[in-house]
Write a structure and sequence with these properties.
The complex is a heterotrimer of chains A (about 300), B (about 260) and C (about 400).
Chain A: H1 17-53, H2 59-64, E1 68-69, E2 74-75, H3 78-109, H4 112-127, H5 130-149, H6 159-184, H7 187-195, H8 200-211, H9 213-229, H10 232-237, H11 255-264, H12 272-305
Chain B: E1 9-20, E2 23-29, E3 32-34, E4 38-42, H1 49-55, E5 66-74, E6 77-78, H2 86-92, E7 93-96, H3 107-117, H4 124-134, H5 138-141, H6 154-167, E8 172-176, H7 184-197, E9 202-206, H8 210-216, E10 219-225, E11 231-238, H9 239-244, H10 249-255
Parallel strand pairs in B: 4-9, 4-10, 7-8, 8-9
Antiparallel strand pairs in B: 1-2, 1-3, 1-5, 5-6, 10-11
Chain C: H1 11-54, E1 55-62, H2 79-89, H3 92-101, H4 109-121, E2 123-128, H5 131-136, H6 138-148, E3 153-158, H7 162-166, H8 179-210, H9 215-227, H10 232-246, H11 248-251, H12 266-290, H13 294-302, H14 307-336, H15 339-344, H16 364-373, H17 377-411
Antiparallel strand pairs in C: 1-2, 1-3
Classes of the chains: A mainly alpha (about 300), B alpha/beta (about 260), C mainly alpha (about 400).
The structure holds adenosine-5'-triphosphate and magnesium ion.
Chain lengths: ~300, ~260, ~400
């Protein structure tokens, strides 16, 4: 083979139109998510503003009265808010202790084999569509509650049943996030505790748990956000029709349940019923957004703590 | 040490071997660790120093496939006999780790916690102060007791870990390269501290630092790996002898820095 | 030190305390484990509840005695005979309508038989029992039927049948099927994936391979994480405002000359689902791309490849399994979503299959919701059957995902 010692080449920048086009397209795809958020805020905000700009709707009525029937001039948001809070509270009452205990067991006690059996069960629970949980709440849990408490003391649609089942639904989320938090706690910390003569329970509860507290906090916040935004369980089992009550044995419609019921009926664009839904949706969006942001921030900080 | 009376031993091992699954990490250790003395364990990386040290307070229990054979006697009782309670054993034999591992709690709580779970009755404030003084940390932190332990420097954290260990009043303190993550000044302070502590405690320390072993210890165990990758104690003697007139050629090579 | 003042319990005293500590340790462990047992029990109860509902005795009466219509037993009638029976017994308008939906000659014998039962004989279900009741309280059930519904027939019925999967909707639970809903779900998922997969993978490639590490990128990333946490019903509201209303000319197909529809089409709903799963697809695809080792990229750059060549020839082929796994998991999320479909206007009662982007639609979870919320127990039975169909669908999707993941793990 004959070789040339010197082959001239040019190192000037070449413009590659193909590369540029592809990069631009990818950029657009990346930025689209921002546009979705903007559109979301814009559309919700626009219609919600129409609702609040209605001369009939005043903030005094919105926050000061306790009946919600926009169609007939009743604009008190409280019944939807209280039932949302009550169902979410019941759900967290179930999901938090159970989720934490499950996570502690999986991360501190379970052998790899036991773990590989139990963990998928939580994953299956996490994958069940919420409408199925709704079916379960209405046709399994409610009858049981009724037979325990007597039919007169608890109505067919009630917040308790919806809340309990929502707790089961959120349990896997809490437990998997907490388990992540526990496994992020460095091993030497546990060894330090054992070396002081601590038992496994003392180590788990008094060293590992406090060390993972912020991670657990993030899980709780995300769980609450999930509970507040959950629709189908409450739509099926908690009752249709706003009801201002703190009694979990009664039926009461949540914010999400109200959106589902009203939008599922005949709805004409621009009517007060229509715009009122956007007001509720905007509130839901903002509340869950803030909760999600806090949760993410806490998780981020927590990760840095042990890096 | 020409003594007429037989010295008291804190730990006596008889053919102690430690296995990870089918692999024998430490084989046939026979040592007698004297009370209220500092015993150093030296040897090249991977020769089983940590493994041996962790077997002294049953920290190896947490390694799923780890097995111990032979005898490890404390006051005549075999640490690995069935009726020995590992939790109580660990409370009698404290441990300080390579990297400082204070609990994510206040300085005060770091010390009080171990005492509390072990049923301490009495004045906790006093115990905390006593332990911090014992670890030569009191003057530096007496105004920060409620601050998180994570706000201390690495050297201070390590002394805090020593303080929490002495707070539960063990007999023996095990230290696995306690100064390897520290700067020279903190290292020196820990060494001074060890001299203080040996008045009340038996100390066993793993170290990679030859000067440290020579300076600070009374006895030295030299460990080396054999052709099956199993570590063993090849020489155990007065520190002075080990560093000046070692019997084993390998020890001589190692302590003079001529090793592999 | 004063031994009486500051001291640790020694000997037996320590032992006693230690035994107490061990006792609480055992109690603690048992409590932790029971949390998991509660989860197991809940899952079992849920599955039991579903299966329990999908099978069992039913007591029914015929509104019209079959012997008044034909002399043969009903299920021995041939296809043409059944057509004759139909022609003779229902109004001409109704017959023509049925004939228009699907020509009588092309309908199967089973289909015609159920039409005869539904339109002429008119089954009237009096009572429905669960599987467990049917198995363990057979005699009580028989006694109850004999007493309350002396004319009724008692029959063990499997609500989940092939016919249930292939039949269209009906206003009578006994004849209702899930075909329209299953097809609707498939259309929705198809549209959602066609929309979200290319955009999602594109966004992930941009974020992992191109985006500079700056504030803007951080905002995009945070935003994606947040979108993943927005309640699905809020996506429904976005779909209602944007795809159903603002983009109505597009989603109803009117700019393409489709006249008989509004914006509440399978297209609008599919796009809504697409937006809903987009953040999930992006996040999963990012993870898959992150898993490709950097050495591979450097090797490609080292032989003079451009950035896109590196991505196309090395990064994407090595992350495709991960991306697909993530997509399948997103699909299983989408397939069970109900709330946004209610909001964008899924039809609750529709008998025609979706046949294009601009058709009206229903979906499996929508039917489950409707049937669950009906008062009559026979609808709960078909809701349970539809749930089984949905869960089997989800199970096979997840099995596919696991298979893919295993293959993927082996390769890297
Ligand atoms: N948990 C374990 N499972 C299996 N093998 C282990 C485990 N821990 C340590 N080993 C092995 O046992 C041998 C001794 O390890 P050990 O940590 O005791 O060495 P070392 O002397 O402390 O080393 P270094 O000076 O680097 O700390 C090594 O070969 C190591 O790989
Ligand atoms: Mg070591």
């Amino acid at each position: 083979m004959s070789t040339k010692n010197f082959r001239p080449f040019n190192l000037k920048k070449t413009i590659r139109p193909g590369e540029t086009i592809i990069q631009s397209l990818l950029f657009v795809a990346g930025v689209l998510s921002i546009m979705i958020t903007i559109t979301l805020v814009y559309e919700l905000g626009k219609e919600a503003l129409l609702f609040f700009n209605n001369p009939d709707v005043t903030l005094a009525k919105f926050f000061g009265t306790t009946e919600w029937q926009p169609g007939i001039g009743k604009y008190g948001i409280w019944p939807l808010v209280t039932s949302t809070l009550i169902t979410s509270f019941i759900a967290m009452l179930i999901a938090l202790p159970l989720g934490l205990a499950a996570a502690l067991y999986l991360s501190e006690y379970a052998s790899p084999k036991v773990r590989s059996i139990l963990k998928p069960i939580l994953e299956i629970l996490a994958g069940i569509p919420t409408v199925v949980y709704g079916f379960f709440a209405l046709l399994f849990v409610t009858p049981i509650l009724q037979s325990i408490m007597g039919k007169d003391n608890i109505s067919v649609y009630n917040m308790l049943s919806a809340g309990l089942v929502m707790g089961i639904m959120i349990l896997p989320l809490i437990s998997s996030m907490s388990e992540d938090a526990f496994s992020a706690v460095p091993r030497p910390l546990r060894e330090g505790a054992y070396a002081m003569g601590a038992t496994k329970l003392e180590t788990s509860l008094q060293v590992v748990l406090p060390a993972a507290l912020s991670g657990i906090g993030a899980a709780v916040i995300l769980g609450i956000s999930r509970a507040i935004g959950e629709t189908m369980i409450v739509a099926v089992a908690a009752g249709s029709g706003p009801n201002f009550t703190l009694n979990p044995f009664e039926a009461a419609e949540t914010m999400t349940g109200n959106i589902a019921r009203i939008s599922g009926g005949d709805l004409s664009y621009g009517s007060i019923d229509y715009t009122s839904l956007f007001a509720i949706a905007l509130m839901l969006f903002l509340v869950t957004l803030v909760l999600n942001l806090i949760s993410q921030y806490v998780v981020q900080r927590f990760r840095e703590q042990y890096e | 040490m020409e003594n007429n009376v037989e010295p008291e031993y804190a730990i006596v091992t008889n053919d102690l071997s430690i296995h990870y699954g089918s692999y024998t990490a430490v084989k046939g250790v026979n040592v007698k660790v004297e009370k209220q003395k500092i015993t150093a364990i030296i040897g090249p990386s991977g020769c089983g120093k940590s493994t041996l040290l962790r077997s002294f307070n049953r920290m190896n229990d947490f390694v799923p496939n780890c097995r111990v054979t032979g005898e490890l006697l404390l006051q005549g009782q075999n640490l690995y006999s069935k009726d020995v309670d590992p939790v109580e054993a660990r409370r009698r034999i404290g441990m300080v780790f390579q990297k400082p591992n204070p609990f994510p709690k206040s300085i005060y709580e770091n010390i009080a916690w171990g005492a509390r779970i072990n049923g301490f009755k009495g004045n906790m404030d006093e115990l905390v102060e006593q332990s911090l003084r014992g670890a030569a940390l009191w003057e530096e932190v007496k105004d920060l007791l409620q601050k998180s332990a994570y706000e201390l420097s690495g050297g201070q954290q390590q002394r805090l870990c020593i303080a929490r260990t002495i707070a539960i009043q063990p007999e023996i303190i095990l230290m696995d390269e306690p100064a390897s993550a520290l700067d020279p000044i903190s290292t020196l302070r820990i060494e001074e501290l060890m001299q203080e502590l040996k008045k009340n405690y038996t100390i066993i320390i793993v170290t990679h630092n030859m000067q440290q072993a020579a300076r600070a210890s009374d006895y030295t165990a030299m460990m080396m790996i054999d052709d099956q990758r199993s570590g063993g104690v090849i020489e155990f003697d007065d520190t002075k002898k080990i560093f000046t007139r070692p019997k084993d050629k390998r020890t001589e090579d190692y302590v003079t820095g001529r090793f592999g | 030190m004063n031994p009486n003042k500051n001291h640790f319990p020694e000997g037996d005293a320590f032992r006693r305390e230690l035994n107490g500590r061990y006792r609480s340790a055992t109690i603690g462990e048992v409590l932790f484990l029971s949390a998991l047992l509660i989860a197991v029990i809940s899952l079992t109860a849920l599955l039991y509840n579903i299966v329990d509902g999908a099978f069992g005795y039913t007591a029914y009466e015929y509104k019209v005695d079959p012997s008044t219509i034909t002399s043969k037993p009903l299920n021995e009638l041939t296809q043409p005979e059944l057509v004759e029976v139909l022609k003779a017994n229902i109004s001409k308008g109704a017959y023509n309508k049925l004939n228009n939906e699907q020509a009588m000659e092309t309908r199967s014998q089973a289909d015609l038989l159920s039409l005869v039962l539904e339109r002429i004989i008119r089954i009237d279900t009096k009572a429905v029992w669960s599987l467990s009741d049917s198995l363990f309280h057979k005699t009580e059930i028989e006694a109850e039927v004999a007493e309350k519904y002396p004319d009724a027939k008692l029959e063990f019925r499997t609500w989940l049948t092939m016919n249930f999967i292939t039949a269209p909707m009906s206003s009578r639970a006994e004849f209702a099927g899930a075909r329209t809903a299953i097809l609707g779900s498939l259309w929705l998922v198809g549209i959602a994936v066609l929309f979200a997969l290319p955009i999602g993978v594109g966004a992930a490639v941009y974020l992992q391979e191109y985006a500079p590490k700056n504030l803007f990128t951080r905002i995009i990333q945070t935003n994606i994480n947040n979108l993943a946490g927005v309640p699905s019903i809020v996506y429904g509201m976005l779909g209602l405002a944007l795809f159903v209303r603002v983009l109505e000319p597009l989603t109803s197909g009117s700019i393409f000359g489709v006249t008989d529809s509004n914006g509440r089409t399978v297209f609008a709903a599919g796009l809504t689902m697409g937006v809903l799963v987009l953040p999930l697809i992006i996040i999963n695809a990012q993870e898959a791309i992150k898993a490709v080792p950097d050495s591979l990229r450097q090797a490609a750059y080292g032989v003079g490849a451009t950035r896109w060549q590196t991505i196309w020839h090395h990064v994407l082929p090595n992350s495709v399994a991960g991306i697909l796994t993530g997509t399948i998991l997103s699909i299983s999320r989408a397939i069970g979503e109900t709330a946004p479909l209610i909001v964008v206007g899924a039809s609750t009662f529709i008998t025609v299959d979706p046949d294009g982007l601009f058709s009206k639609f229903t979906a499996l979870p929508i039917q489950i919701f409707n049937w669950t919320t009906r008062a009559q127990p026979e609808f709960h039975a078909i809701a349970a059957s539809a749930i089984i169909v949905l869960m089997v669908l989800l199970l096979s999707l997840n099995a596919t995902a696991i298979l893919l993941r295993n293959r993927f793990q082996r390769r890297l």
